[in-house]
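Side project, low priority. Logging it here so it doesn't get lost.
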Amino acid sequence: SIASIVPLEDGWEKIKNEGIKVLEEFLDSGSIRSSVPQNNDPAKPRNVFSKANYAELYTTVYNMCTQRTPNNWSEQLYRRYGEAMSDYVQRQVLPALKDKSDIALMKVEAQKAAMVFKHQEQSKASAKSLNADVTKVGDLSKFMAFAPQYKAKLMARPDVAEGELIRVTDWKLLTPPDYDRTGFHVEVDVRGTNMEKLVNGSQGKALSVYSTNDAAKVTEFLKAMNLDPDAIVSVEEIAPQSEEGMVVLTTAYKLFTQYLDLFGKPTREFLKKLFPFAVDVMEKVAIAELTLDRKTEEFLDRQARATTFADYLVEFKSLKIPLDKYSELIPTIKQRVYSICSSSDYRPGTCQLLVVREDWQAKGGETKFGLASSFLTFIRPGSVCVAHSTHSVMEMPEDKAAHVFMAGLGTGLAPFRAFVEQRKFEKAGGTKVGPLTLFFGGRHAKAEYYYRDEFEAYEAE
């Protein structure tokens, strides 16, 4: 039989109304309308997705894609399908994921994804693999729109198996606003996590926190390097696949914000890996020379000035680094361990930290700040972070009647506050407990006597 010629707009109107819109409704509500009106008689309904309807839609698409030019609409339909999917993702999927915006990496079953992109690979010669197809954040969102089919799941830090997302519930400044140090109190909600029973500061537990880079500085870096923040990259270097046929994907923005220690201090090993990516011969030589013994003084001077990975990457303008190679050059952000200043028996479901923002003067006079303490300085209730419990050397004696002597300076007070809370909890439960004696030191009592009201109240008891 000879295929019929179908005008583009007529055919697209049918596909959109009787196919795409019905599918969107199913995705939104989980059910399909029992009928849709016929184009020639709006008052007369027809069953949706009956065998006849399937055949009619299939025939329409077939006829639109098998004609000779100028009546072959395969490219136009391909483009409009993509636009329709992108529109749905922007309207429905991304808003639904808004509360998960701090989660960056996801796993996708590559085999099924390849099936979905099979037609695209046939029609576009440049699409050679899943990574070649998935290049924009909108493409990544498609996997979330059809998560069960792709076995897609959001992950906080796939490279940190024990890491969990926890939400900040309280943040209080403990030092005067005009003081030259910033000391503060942070509380996180650990209910329902694996660490819920493992965050008692009196039982030798600490909290490992994984911080993120300053978003504004990352945006500035991406612009300087001419990198698209929404570009998708596979990060097997960070988190090797744990299941057959799975890939781990993230965006460039998330990669540099949440995973790579972009503003950390590099070693010469970094420079040895970096110089081959320089296109300009003079820059290639300049980078390579910094790894030589005769350039030790210059390299150490850069170290003293706290030159970062980002500084080197921006300095040498001819660098051409594929996006997936950055994770081979820059290490990931490591955990920062904080003593827990609360007892989970006394405060169930919560974990509290006592933190001071770290700062120092680099050569040249510029003030530098610690990544993790700065991250916690600006985090606020409602924000989330990745953390897990870890072991600490500070642990109360098993003998609850023992007299415990404690001595700490500054934030070294943290575990001893947990000791006091634990004894208070045990005493309230009828256990006979021994006395506690605390020796605490700070530079200025008015500024650094942390939790003063609490300890004075305990002393009064």
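Brief comment: DSSP finds 19 helices and 16 strands in the chain.
Revisit when time allows.
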